[in-house]
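protien #1 (seq + structre)
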Amino acid sequence: VCTPSTMSDTPEPTTPKLAGGQDDDKDAPVSIEESLKDGKIIILFKNTGNAPPLKQKKFKLQAQANFGSVIEFLRKQLRYKPSEPLFLFVNCTFQPSPDETVAELFKCFHNNGKLVINYCTTAAWG
């Protein structure tokens, strides 16, 4: 059962430290347990096509949040209205269901301790 949780509008620092004091830009492997230990996941948003870039691309969001909450969060960051088209894809591959939890997506598709979410204003993949 998926239960939505609240996400903070206050973004975390752009260069959060991961386990062992390593910068997250390093290619050192990060275990799922280490990434989930504080109940939050690092999400890296990447714009595609003509979608506007975010000034801050990395955020820590609640692991138990559903993907619909991630969509709402990104819309708020971009100042997009609900009527404006916005498509989100995990690893340039597929659009998750809005009721899918971020933790489950992370467990299946994480990349070095981050969940990469591409966004665009037209359907680019899928």
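ok now protien #2
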Amino acid sequence: MLCCLLTVLSIAAAANVEKKRAVLQSCDLLSNLTCTADGPSWRLMTALRIWNMEHSELSQWQVALKGDPVSEENESLCNKQLHVFLITLLSEIEEAITKLSSHTPSYVQSSCLTLQSEYKQIIQTTCDQLPHTCTSS
């Protein structure tokens, strides 16, 4: 009986993921998911809101297209996921900066270091705007 229930739940979850993917694809929300100095882009937040919708909320995906939060729970989950992603990204940027700084800088390395530093500042600014503040090293 448990095996049958798990199979049904697995099929339902897969269908839910496919529906979300179809909505994101039809709205062209699978690319250009960015952060700027102004924070996460509308596209990024909209994609997160749709992806994190409960099955019962999926019929209201148009709400997310207006830029409105779907629910408090959904918005909280989106911010937490974005926070985790940005913390990971900040760590990767720090690692890249450390590697670039450890070599005698060439013109290309200096340019890369400058770009990575600017990228880090943008990501940190986005983190600072989230309810769950990121901390960088």
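Residues 72-101 form the longest helix (30 residues).
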